[in-house]
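User: Modeling request: complex.
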Amino acid sequence: MKNCYIARSRSVAARQLGEEMVIMSAQDSTLFNLNPVATLIWLGADGHTPLETIVQQRICSTFEVDLEEALQDAQQFVSELAAHGVLLLGEAPISDANAEMAKLP
Amino acid sequence: MMAWAISQDNSLAPGSLAFDEVTVEIGGVAIQLWTRDSGFRKVIEERYEGFVNPEALPECRFEIQLTSNRHSGDTDEDVSVFKCGSKWCLKRGDFQAEWDLESRTGWIRQCANPYSIDSVLRITHSLLLAMQGGFQLHASSAIRNGHAFLFAGVSGVGKTTMASLAPSDAVVLTDEISYVRRIDSGYRAYGTPFAGELGRPGANLSAPLQQACLLRQGERNRLRKVSQAEAIRSLMRHVLFFARDNELVEQVLDAVVNFASRVEVVEMEFTPDRRAWELIQ
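Assistant: Request completed. Predicted assembly structure:
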């Protein structure tokens, strides 16, 4: 997963509550709760920024964590959300047509 | 009684076929049901006794098309609710229904099973409520001292127990499905006819909501305030939600977020006896 791009799915509703994020899937009404670290990745999921850059800029700069270790955790996290259809994954930038680029409250 | 005919394409048109109508009003939202079967009309009137209001202006009208019992399906099948153009389509093993948002009319095909009409009403109310910033919740509810209290939780945690233990100065609104509407800057809870294990409908009354209690049985009775995030997460798990529709998901999530910012949400540890009600004042 070297060139990994992530984008928020259109089929979810997400609301930020402090540093956490609550996400509800319109497909199966599943509810997801993201902790502050996962929320930072979610917020960076614009479809154009590589996952490695998101982790470096948003995670490593905020928390004292090694990039390689943080990236490994992030890859596992985005794979899990992608399996639920909440995030879209791609090896190339993901267009707005396929992802939710709407403003987040 | 009014005379209407339903054409084959399910649109309503004046005609000569006689229908019996029953208007069921829950939470101030009226739904008119039409049936050519006077026996089933009686079933509806009895089932929703206390919530039938012929004077209420209906938000929508359904023609009930009864099918034979041979074709009745599985009530345990997952319900499917989706929007197709301006219509909401509802489907489960035991019923099919369509409801047009523009004309506010629709039809229900089902056998003469009251559980089917119960489900259609619950789903339709969940859609109507979502558009107005409200929701239905798997929760019992009651009015005490002029204010309403919700008791939410998973099956078996004690929703019906709280309702059955209600003291004489409390009025039970429901032991199964609570009806919450946004009114001005606050929220009101309304009684519903949807009964759980208690086996009887709630009172057709309403009151401003004071507190939502997330039930947890324990060894003592106490309340613990929960964070807004925890409140939203917990409440969302108990909201009645059927539709696979992005706009509706947004509306429901917004409604719960707003609710949790205006109504106190607490975790209620309780012993399953009357002392639990000492916390509800």
